[in-house]
Queue: 2 jobs
Job 1
Amino acid sequence: MKYETVIGLEVHVELATQSKIFCSCSAHSYGAEPNEHVCPACCGMPGMLPVVNKRVVDYGMKAGLMLGCHINRVTTFDKKSYYYPDLPAAYQTTQWFAPVAVNGLVEIETSKGKKGVRIKQIHMEEDAGKLVHDIREDTTHVDFNRTSVPLIEIVSQPDLSSAEEVVAYLDRLKNLLRYARVAECEMAHGTMRCDVNLSVRPEGSDKLGVRTEMKNMNSIEAIKRAIEYETARHIDALENNTEVLVQETRRWDDIKGKSFAMRTKETAGDYRYFPDPNVMPVVIDDNWFDEIKSSLPEFPEVKRERYMSEYGLGEYDTEQITKSIALCECFEEAAKTCGDAKNAANWIISEVMSILNLRQMTYDMLTVSGKSLGELITLVSGGKVGRANAKKILAAMFDDASINPEEYANANGFVISNDTGLIDKVVKEVVESDPKSVADYKGGKEKALMALFGRCMKELKGNCDPQTLRKILIEYIDKI
Amino acid sequence: MIYTAKKDVNSACKIVAEDMLLTTDMPTAAGSKMLDGYMSLLEAEVLTILKDKGYGVCGKADVGEFAIDLLGETSYNGANTADGKLLNSSSEILKANEADAVIALDVNGTTRRAAAQNGLVSVKPTYGTVSRYGTVPVACSGETVSVMAKDAKTCRKVLDDIAGHDDKDGTSLPESEIAKKADAKEIKRIAIINDMMADVSDDVKANIDSAVAKLDVEVVNIDSSVIASSRPAWNILMSAELCNNVSRYDGVKYGHRAEKFSGIDELYTNSRTEAFGDLLKTAIIFGSETLSTENYMKVYDKALRTRRVIVEEFAKIFAEFDAVMIPACSKAFYTEDDVKADKYVSYKENFYTAPASITGLPAVVAGGVQLIGKAFSENALLELASKI
């Protein structure tokens, strides 16, 4: 019998706000000492009252709109109770009754074509802390830096049917949320986490099979492996009666390549949700809604379409630039400033992206402004600065985004000289010092000319129009 | 009386804080062994305000465990008694002239009841007009910081000084709302709710009669079974919120930790079993049940809806009357034997305090009677109370 897999995802995404959801502690604890970013509020001590970080609601709305959701204009926070040492108040503040966004739709594309994945809801909530187990001492340490860091949980309908679709869906979420600049979505950093709800049924059946929930996949590859393993396990159970499937939560062990049922103690329990009386319902009025809506970026595919039709870019260039909203913004502004979109695209792809890669920065970390880049491109195309020196200026702009390219070129002697007297002098010196290359060139070796050209350019510190130099050099050699 | 006194406080107006308000220079136990010796990192906003305004905070008054009892019978320090009668530490402190006013957290009406049995004045202001920042949370949807003193004038002064918006409290009302207090109209018509008078003792009835005789207002007796249904609804909401709020005391981070345990589950269970008293445990179990998936709609959600019906009932009454007069207790004093015979006395006595707690309306107790007014009418209520 043929089977089909039915998958729904619960994706947790850490929002990229500066501070935590209900207090002013920093939400960024990467590299911090344990319990450095904590206060009585996020430690759940008595007496502190939660005050909603408005930016979290902004980001929640943005995420909802990017994923095609309806925004609930009155959204409320609720308490979810359970005991665990990483949850200092013994309750998590989340959204149970009126989440910020519902009923969305995300389009994905796989080898089988395009497909819509329905979003059930997106709710905002606080993260829990971290437990660090010390095997040597047989103790457990608690780090509350992460408690109350804002999260959204994106709950999909069971519309996915393969690992390929799941990967496409996660990529799409990551792309859209990064475009809206609300989250980093990096599984390796824990800023995107994914639980997989999976069941299997005979192909064509409209009845859902027994569903299991898998946790603890820390990479896209682990998710793929987990889905493949779990699908096979379900089919095996149905075909060969190897085991009886039960609805349960399972932990994925990526090293063993297997999923294991979690102890019922870890998963059972009644969360006793109820509205948090300390957090007033958040009312999103028209002004607020419109402000958020108008702040959203163009969707990636709209941009791609426009880049090709409006700027005349090729498919490859378009794909490269639209990988990141920061690259898009830089490109658009640079194209506007220098008036040459294709040249701007070339600079982004060949120079900007290579420096980002070299420095191991994500594309979204780009701080160089499009305006400055456009000015730099204008300097090069106007013959004021040589390309090699322009690259040096660009590198300096990466270090200090406030650098004005023209001022920097002037201050550092990167301006092309129109002094042909100087060029003549350098050409004469270089040619006289290297008669062998001159002879080689005259004997028909084009490469020998390039060597002489390079040495001249070096002597001139790059501040020379290459065409002019080439012309003078050839004329000089011809005269010999 | 049981309280931690600070000897070196010199001030024209001395304040004692009930032990539900967090202090950084004195421990805060909230009447529970769980928090014995707990030193807070933050101070109750109202105490900070009062200190800034020249008041002297000269001590902490003991309170029943998390202030849910009405008689002070459940403090881990033991009941505070004289001649077998259960006494409230805060009211005893005032009677002994140890302080001019007590700042309390009115969770379940403890200070209103204490004022009634001792002929003192207590005001529970409109919900949201005084910051709850730095108070030990129990039933956050209804509890408010309250003031108790010997006379209405002192209550008024202290309340005026502590009322105001606080950014640190998400339920704190904006200043423009709080300012409505200044517009409170003189009270001319009062309704006595017959349903609240059925089970009270003769001395409480006499207090009501005496108050009516002293006041130059029109008094009408009306029926309202809705207001009389406040208690069960409030007990559900209070217990549920309490269950959730005290779950943070688990022996892991601070507070009482059991000496013997094996594993994290036993650490929780043993610490809480040892540190919590019977009444609190009952409330925790009751509250936990009301929030279970099975009972939420049947019980908790119904209580929330009942709260709205009660608020609407008050609104209807206030269309005709300026205030409501009801008792604050069924009888003035209970003995230790009474509580031994029925340990849930407090859960029954709040029949009289629950209407103001569940609605967030202002309530003033004076001369052994309780006046409940429209939102922001506390000044008018205190004005009336000064004549009782």
Job 2
Amino acid sequence: MTGSLVPSRSRVLLLAALVLLYVLCLVLAPPGTLATLPMTQPFLPPSPKHLLGTDDLGRDLLEELAQGGRTSLLVAGLTTVLALGIGCIVGTAAGLGPRWLDELLMRTADIVLSLPALLFAILVATLFGGSALNLALVLGLTRWPVIARLVRAETRTLRGADFVRAAVAVGTPPLSLALRHILPHTAPAALSAAGIVFGGAILAEAALAFVGLGDPHLTSWGHLIATGFAFLTHGWWLWTFPTLALCATSALVALLADTSDGLSR
Amino acid sequence: MRLLWRCSFLIASVWLAATLAFVLVHLAPGGPAIALGGESGAPGYLEEIQKLYGLDRPLPEIYANWLLNILRGDLGYSYRSQQPVLSLILERLPVTLALVAPAILFSALAGIALGLARIPTQDRPGHGFVAAMAALHALPSYIVGQALVIVLALGLGLLPVQGLVDARSAATGAARLLDMARHLVLPVLTLALHHIAFMALLTRARVARELARPYTVTAAAKGLTQAGVRRRHALPNAIPGIATLFGARLGGFVAGAVVVETLFALPGLGRLIVTSAIARDHPVVIGIVLFTTAVVVATNLAVDMLLRWLDPRLDEADT
């Protein structure tokens, strides 16, 4: 309706930027955990030696930021893969299957969607610890209906198309019908929804880390923002740089998934 | 028939949410006995606590007992404070309601007004507006909150930084309520901004879609002003779709309240569930999950029923 905000060619660039960001985080982050980061003097302002300054314990903020980005992007990536997998399977099965299967799967999706996902993420993080895998599991298992609904709707419209009926007529088995004829056409919609799930997962992980429920061994952007806010009067850089990193990534994903379109659909 | 179907949906949602919470808290490492008795309690002491709360039984039996009590309307007693769970929830509920209800109302009204003011036209496609709203929507609520605190509370000193009341004031009655309202301005704004962006984009797209239909041309031909056509004809027809999608976000307000209550140190339900989960206070954790899911799903049901009463065409669309 309003048209896409970003032309598809620049979307490839945005995706490349996201991948580059993750690789950059992997390269810049020193191996090990939060506890093994080297320490120098605390509260050093940004300088050539410490590009983004040091934190309250004298750790280099750039290294922490890279380690945090690794955590944040890993959680979001795992969540998206999980939600995309379940969503595509359930959505395609509901779209192609008999009516009772469609009803069963979609009502289940409705019920799962009505659960307060972040509340459960908070519970899991509090009870089992906020490791990347735990968070990705709970977020992925609660967010798949977003994708399943879209894939089902697209599959339903495709079902009556001539090429699908022709494929059925020549005796294509259901599985190969789904994989070779349906999924390639539903993939764009599914990927756009996956972008929304990815962005939501970044925010959810950051919110949990902010409340203090993240992985205590690894830092994350939400965690850095929380501590940065606590030490705001000691150094502006401690809050500003993690906030910028999180906002820029979140905005990048929003543009990539064309959230404006997805939101108003 | 339809109402019956929707009510069974409600019960299924609440049951699933509560059961998931039950399974999660009971599978978690640690447990109420260790939380209450300490890791190095006297021999036999931990077992005594387990027995006292019936936790020494096999899990299916605990679950069956718990489910029976729920069906009788009994949410149980808190392990920590020995108070009934329901009274604990009701005690904290006003704070969360005072935060969430104004945020819902404000984001709905402001979002619709903003979206209505920025309907795309031929010579003004409004890409900038869409980008700005998408960016606002992509910001985590606590960053917005912190920025507001830095500027409005710490910088200009206009509003209090956190808490529900001023600890140094002994005001009662109306003065106390006014003090609370002042403390709630920033939390409500923080919770609402994210959803305002969503509502603005949604309203804009949905009203524009209605404006493409022939009846709006008739309304304009009849001599209504552009604003009149939008407000009186296009908006009412777009409202059901907007309300349904907004209703789906009510759970997001509740979860957002956990973060906002932490940021502003408000003693609401969100704080209670986090502290209870840390203390392994199982009945309270399950009780809050059950209670909030029930409220959210029931509200959605009510919105849906209201919309169907207002616009009977929705019923036909289903069948």
